[in-house]
Amino acid sequence: MKIAILLATYNSKRYLGEQIASILNQTYKDWTLYVRDDGSTDGTQDLIEDYVLKYPNKIIHIVNGNNGLKAYHNFLSLLYDVDADYYLFSDHDDVWLPNKIELSLNLMQEAIDKFGNEIPLLVYSDMKVVNENIEIINNSFWKYSKLLPNCIKFEELVFCNSVNGCTILINQKAKDVSKKNIPYCTMHDMLTAQSVAANYGKLLKLDEPTVLYRQHANNVIGARDINIKYFLTKLIHPFEKIKLYIALFKQINKIKRVSVLKFIYYKIKIVILRLSASIIYR
To answer: Domains of the chain, with CATH numbers?
Structure first.
């Protein structure tokens, strides 16, 4: 069984060592870490090479002249270039809890025993939200951001994606179905989650946090403490929002056919559920 950890970096020197250390300290050891840098100027690539020299059988630096890809395409470049049975995505600035891979693989194996390995399978988990010094802000990213981890139908994921990229473990079939949808998503977690859901796959939830999700000034996408005020601000400039939803409707229909009525229904459903969550978890 070949397991690939895909780590995309860009000016990551400040936090990268701590993240790689957390991967090296995993209870499950049979993996290979593939790192691709997007043209860093802060010494990140030198740091990666230091780790490659120290752990030549565990860490591979994929050197690619095509830089300026940004996070989404940097991860996709790794996904294309690496061949494995299972894939995990790793952000450069988090810290993995020691049993992350073990827990994810155990749930993946349960799914394979139940459904087989010939359908798309994706494992995802909760995270602990921490500050840049790894001090706990909230013990549940899902509760903190008022997300809905049990809403995993395709239409639900369009409006509320609780599948965070740095928690994901996917099988080869999930990779295969994701490839064709690359033009229609904006992040690798949305790509894989929506593709698996749209192709009759299974999304499997770990309630236990497996990642310390670090918040700092340079997060590409961070955690937000969502409250009722957040939803009220969404009512500002309604015509702009309508234009955005029309564009979204056209986009998701390239992944899976969705009727207008179903699109509206799931939007209303998700808003109500998240509003309820914002009251429950105040």
So the answer is: 3-225 (3.90.550.10)
Integer angstrom CA distances of residue 116 from 30, 120, 196: 22, 10, 15
- Over the Cα atoms of the chain, what is R_g? 19
Half-sphere exposure of 222 (CA within 13 A, CB side): 14
Q: pLDDT under 70 in the chain at which residues? A: 65-66, 217-239, 280-282
pLDDT, one tens digit per residue, over 59-78 is 999 987 667 777 888 999 89
Query: 156-187, pLDDT tens digit by residue?
Result: 999 999 999 999 999 999 999 999 999 998 89
Position 71 scores a pLDDT of 84
Q: Could you give the CA distance from residue 124 to residue 31 in angstroms, rounded to a whole number?
A: 18
3-state DSSP percent of the chain in helix, strand and coil, to 5: 45, 15, 40
CB 23: neighbour CB atoms within 10 A?
A: 19
Q: Where are the alpha helices (DSSP H) in 96-148?
A: 100-115, 141-144
Q: Cβ distance 232 to 112 under 8 Å?
A: no
Side chain identity, residue 221: I
Task: Report pTM.
Answer: 0.91
List Cβ<8 Å contacts ≥24 apart for 225-231.
Answer: 225/138, 225/144, 225/145, 226/144, 226/145, 226/146, 226/274, 226/278, 227/146, 227/278, 227/282, 228/275, 228/278, 228/279, 230/278, 231/271, 231/274, 231/275, 231/278
Distance of alpha carbon 16 from alpha carbon 38, whole angstroms: 14
| Nearest C-alpha neighbor of 63 from the set 76, 49, 75 | 49
Q: What was the pLDDT predicted at 104?
A: 98
Contact 1, 84 (CB under 8 A): no
Query: CB neighbours (10 Å) of residue 200?
Result: 9
